[in-house]
């Protein structure tokens, strides 16, 4: 509705109140509207007053107190002005928090280090974010708050095990799915934790007709360097996940982000250092590229920290 239409509706709303309340409409500066008057006989007024006094008596008010015509009219005028102000405020200046979302985006591993910054960026852009993790919603929210240093609004935390749960309901109707899921080097079951789980997520997103998919993998310079002898299962799992994403989603509908070393980490979590001389990418830089992929601003592969920083 246009602003002019809203003002007209507001005026009609105020003008119609006297018919509902049974009182005479208050004076207005503009005289374009008729002033309907509803009158009562003395006997009708007596009956109405007596009935009102009975109600007041039951509620513990003074039983013989009667509000005169002037006071009643004043109360009506104040109520009308209040209703009009509230109507105009809500119609012309709506609460920004009630604005419609731009759409739903699902972030698997949304309470992790990269996932928290991805969720924050998406929420700040007006998207409804669904964070999926094996942790409970409360645990996810607490972890994100510690990572970001503040609580995060606009995020729905869902507890699901992506390795076994039915992912169709959480993916339904989403604009994009993002997987930041992975087991860090040194963790248990790195092959499946980085490979099979992400293959399953990509397959589920395709089956749910999700338009876009973004996967956070690892830089080729690490995968093809000396680290491959130390991080065999970790790198094999990442490669399996990348292949699944490329099979399920054409390059134009997906983005694989491949950072090398990411600076920092979740509070209290120690991560292995990167190779000597390798510059770490900031988590904000990585999150920026991931979000661009989810929104269709970037597709294909962004490989390495230099490419991420240059984005």
Q: What features would you describe in this structure?
A:
The chain is an alpha/beta fold. Helices cover 46% and strands 12% of the residues. The chain has helices at residues 3-21, 42-58, 69-92, 113-124, 137-148, 168-171, 190-194, 196-207, 220-223, 232-248, 283-294, 305-310, and strands spanning 104-108, 128-133, 155-159, 174-179, 212-216, 254-258, 300-303. Strands 3-2-1-4-5-6-7 form a seven-stranded parallel beta sheet, with helices on both faces. The longest helix is centred in the N-terminal third of the chain and has 24 residues, at 69-92. The two termini are 40 Å apart. Residues 2-40, 42-70 and 86-98 have low confidence and may be disordered.
| Lateral strand order in the biggest sheet | 3-2-1-4-5-6-7
Q: Portion of residues in helices?
A: 40-55%
**In terms of structural class, how would the helical and strand content be classed?**
alpha/beta
What is the total tally of β strands? Answer: 7
Q: Taking all residues together, what is the mean pLDDT?
A: 79
Shape: globular
The largest β sheet comes out as: 7 strands, parallel
Brief summary of the model shown:
The chain is an alpha/beta fold. It has 12 helices and 7 strands. Helix 11 (283-294) links the parallel strand 6 (254-258) and strand 7 (300-303).
Topology of helices and strands:
Elements (H helix, E strand, L loop, with lengths): L2 H19 L20 H17 L10 H24 L11 E5 L4 H12 L3 E6 L3 H12 L6 E5 L8 H4 L2 E6 L10 H5 L1 H12 L4 E5 L3 H4 L8 H17 L5 E5 L24 H12 L5 E4 L1 H6 L1
Helix pairs in contact: 1-3, 4-11, 8-10
